[in-house]
Amino acid sequence: MGNVEDALIREIYRINAHLPARRTTLKSLLSEERPGVRLRDGSWHGFRRSELEKIALLLDPGDDEKLLLPVVLEIVTDFRGYFRVRGRTAVKLIDRILGTYDPLDEPEERLYPRYLLPRVRRELPTTTTYAFISE
User: Fold this and answer.
1) pLDDT band at residue 2, thresholds of 50, 70 and 90?
2) 9-18, 24-33, 35-44, 76-85: lowest mean pLDDT where?
């Protein structure tokens, strides 16, 4: 069984090569002339400045130092029909994009129905990315 699991892990790593090697805070990205991150495959991913500024307007003061970009939208095998977002500030951002933010409910992670993915990606095309996870 180990060979099958090893092959699955290698395949998941391959399909996630588009993920950032390291994520950066919104505050740091806003100060860069060419905001972006290096990806695991060695390529460069740039962020639209207008999108970064839009996010800054949606967040509370100080959240620009907490939000790491890109926001990772996790497609998890155990959560059929849902995707997961982790990080209190990232969840707050996605909730505000979707119009569902509740200041009395700021969890560390949240599951969202998968049908909302296109809406999130349409609003935040350069500052969100998918990750495929097998749990």
Assistant:
1) low
2) 9-18
Separation in Å, CA 30 to CA 18, 35, 49, 64, 80:
22, 7, 7, 9, 35
Closest CA to 31 of 43, 49, 19: 49
What does pTM read for this prediction? Answer: 0.89
- How far apart are the C-alpha atoms of 107 and 120, rounded to whole Å? 18
**Which long-range contacts link 40-46 to residues 24+ away (Cβ below 8 Å)?**
40/16, 41/17, 45/18, 45/20, 45/70, 45/126, 45/129, 46/126
